[in-house]
Amino acid sequence: MRLLIKLRAEADAAYQNAWHHKLRGRVWQGIDGSKYDDLHDADRPIGLTFSNIFPWGDIEEGDRRHVMVSAADPDILGPIAGDLIENRDFNVGEMAFSVEEITGLHPDVGEPGTRGTIESGTGVLVRIPPWRTDDYGIEHEGDEALYWRPEHTLEPFKTQLENNLDQKHDYCCPEHLPGPSDREGELFDEYELIKTFAVPVEVTQGVELTYVLSKWRFGYRVRDDHHRRHLNLALDAGIGERNALGLGFLNIQEGSKERATASGQASVAGDD
């Protein structure tokens, strides 16, 4: 589930590309003091992510912008929504907004047989641990993880992405249900790389790292209910690492869903 938050700009401002840490602070303000407060220190994927403020671009007073917050456990969104209603100021660095409206959304890739395209709304972080580089035929010295780049080929990207989603499945889904790597078939049918880019990210107060991220379009066809759950988990929790900083946020491309009919023809399915 996710929240679509409509914002109104309170002042002119330049769009700040280094938004991750400050936007996380505003989103997490609602969790502080709640029963989810200890997630701050969790050393595991927590199943919570958020988009950037969109559309991108410099801001004029009165402009309308949006941001989405998504979680595998919809109960986490309760205190976040409550705080946004009670405290309407939504300030991210020099970008000052007020909250106008909050809407709950339930994105769904569709029933088995449905085809569609998922886009990464924010950059995806995938790192290759040093002990796996030999498996992928990557020459590497040292103990530091490698940021995935196109020259490393798709195999490590797919494997690390699926392993990461396995962890989220372990924490966010019932134990008896199979995770992504327990089932045959890949998570996505098509992997279209849009771009890679490096961006400085303040990962915690006063600590900045430069991450190498990538943006993608992923084609999919829902094989069965398990595959549907895995894809919807990716939509809710994000893919790759550091989702709690707003990385790996996904959207279903508008108008891309096609539902298979009994005659074998495809029909356009409604967007969620």
From TrEMBL:
<protein>
    <submittedName>
        <fullName>CRISPR-associated endoribonuclease Cas6</fullName>
    </submittedName>
</protein>
<keyword id="KW-0051">Antiviral defense</keyword>
<feature type="domain" description="CRISPR associated protein Cas6 C-terminal">
    <location>
        <begin position="144"/>
        <end position="252"/>
    </location>
</feature>
<dbReference type="InterPro" id="IPR010156">
    <property type="entry name" value="CRISPR-assoc_prot_Cas6"/>
</dbReference>
<dbReference type="GO" id="GO:0051607">
    <property type="term" value="P:defense response to virus"/>
</dbReference>
<dbReference type="InterPro" id="IPR049435">
    <property type="entry name" value="Cas_Cas6_C"/>
</dbReference>
<dbReference type="Pfam" id="PF01881">
    <property type="entry name" value="Cas_Cas6_C"/>
</dbReference>
